[in-house]
Specification:
heterodimer; A: alpha/beta; Nitrile Hydratase, Chain A; two-stranded parallel ribbon; 12 helices; 47% helix; B: alpha+beta; Cyclin A, domain 1; 8 helices
């Protein structure tokens, strides 16, 4: 693929259809500037600030934009909140839809046939492979991202985090927990 | 289309196998393929729905044996040829051989930030009232269009409940095929696991899709 993509870039550059410096800038954006730390900030703020949480429930696009996380693949955001009664899991069975401004580009497993095929029919089996076992009575809600709405899971705030500030809390929020494929980290285990 | 992309409920693909500490890209060519795909999307010749359709139109054997950015690369080559920007001969030679179609714009490095931040919202005014309300029971259509659709096979002909209305959104089934945006009301429709998978389903499973109005019929 190295030669094939180099050939493509050469042709497009020779024809004036791309500027390689623009390609560099696109790569830099998603490799270094946008990623799951943005989403962790959103979740930690929702855990800390009831007004922000209410805004996130009501209008996730605006609430998330207020923190500066906007743009491509995050134009229409919806936050879904885990509770003891319901665990949310996000998938795109048809392609790879994922909320880029808050999570960056998706990991390979999210885009690959095993996850895309199984998340809708056997979500508990999928979760077990991520080391997550839910109580039997907990409902699993799978969100198949078939349109341009992008889903951010707000995991449950772990016990023992009462005195923590936003930054400390954000360190507990993993990428997988914001897809629903994991839980927020337990601070006692982390310590 | 009933293509290789429509994976929900398929079996035999094995474990998920998440990679610990996964890098954003796994090879330098992946970075360039990603950047080229996003940059050429701004030439103004195709939209995200046509792009998705180009990927899912790969031969199933090719789709399943290609990595993600291989799929992207093969699709963007197809789009560039389809819209007259490059020729098959050029792709084979690895160099430009003549003039091609004129782009509406070519993105500069300075434009990248603003363009990515602007994104491509799909909400549109539709001018008609929504046919369904939250709480309505609806049945998804049984249909097998040869072109693009965002109604997965596993969710066709199933009864669910409208949970939320999202206003008008560009209709991908026509937008992907060069037949216009034709925006429709969009709904989140939630199904019981047993409605989708039968009595063996996890009884505490709920699945939702986002469905355009023409995918739905009243029950």
């Amino acid at each position: 693929m190295t030669a094939r993509v180099r050939a493509l870039e050469t042709i497009l550059t020779e024809k004036g259809l791309i500027d390689p410096a623009a390609i560099d800038e696109i790569i830099e954006t998603y490799e270094h500037r946008v990623g799951p730390k943005n989403g962790a900030h959103v979740v930690a703020k929702a855990w800390s600030d009831p007004d922000f949480e209410a805004w996130l429930r009501r209008d996730a696009t605006a609430a998330i934009a207020s923190l500066g996380y906007i743009g491509r693949q995050g134009e229409h955001m919806q936050a879904v909140f885990n509770t003891p009664e319901t665990h949310n899991l996000v998938v795109c069975t048809l392609c790879s839809c994922y909320p880029w401004p808050v999570l960056g580009t998706p990991p390979v497993w999210y885009k690959s046939p095993p996850y895309r095929s199984r998340a809708v029919i056997d979500p508990r089996g999928v979760l077990a492979e991520f080391g997550v076992t839910l109580p039997e009575e907990t409902e699993v809600r799978v969100w198949d991202s078939t349109a341009e709405l992008r889903y951010l899971v707000v995991p449950m705030r772990p016990a023992g985090t009462e005195g923590m500030g936003e930054e400390e809390l954000a360190a507990l929020v993993t990428r997988d927990s914001m897809i629903g494929a994991g839980l927020a980290l337990d601070p006692t285990v982390l310590a | 289309m009933n293509g290789p992309q429509d994976l929900g409920g398929q079996m035999g693909f094995g474990p998920i196998d998440p990679e610990p500490d996964e890098p954003v890209f796994h090879a330098p060519w992946e970075k360039r393929a990603f950047g080229i795909t996003l940059a050429t999307g701004t030439l103004g010749a195709w939209n995200i729905d046509e792009s998705r359709h180009a990927r899912e139109s790969l031969h199933p054997v090719d789709y399943y044996t290609s990595s993600y950015y291989e799929i992207w690369t093969k699709a963007v080559e197809k789009l560039l040829v389809r819209h007259g920007f490059v020729t098959e001969a050029e792709l084979a030679a690895g160099h430009a051989q003549g003039a091609g179609a004129m782009p509406k714009r070519v993105i500069s490095a300075a434009d990248v930030g603003p363009v990515l931040k602007r994104g491509g919202p799909s909400n549109r005014e539709v001018g008609v009232r929504p046919r369904f309300a939250a709480g309505d029971r609806v049945r998804t259509k049984v249909m097998h269009p040869v072109g693009h659709t965002r109604l997965p096979r596993y969710a066709r002909g199933k009864v669910g409940t409208v949970e939320a209305l999202h206003g008008g959104h560009v209709f991908p089934d026509t937008n992907a095929m060069g037949e216009g945006e034709n925006p429709q009301h969009l709904y989140t429709v939630v199904f019981d696991g047993r409605e989708i998978w039968g009595p063996d389903s996890d009884p505490r499973l709920k699945i939702s899709i986002d469905a355009w109005e023409s995918y739905l019929e009243p029950v």
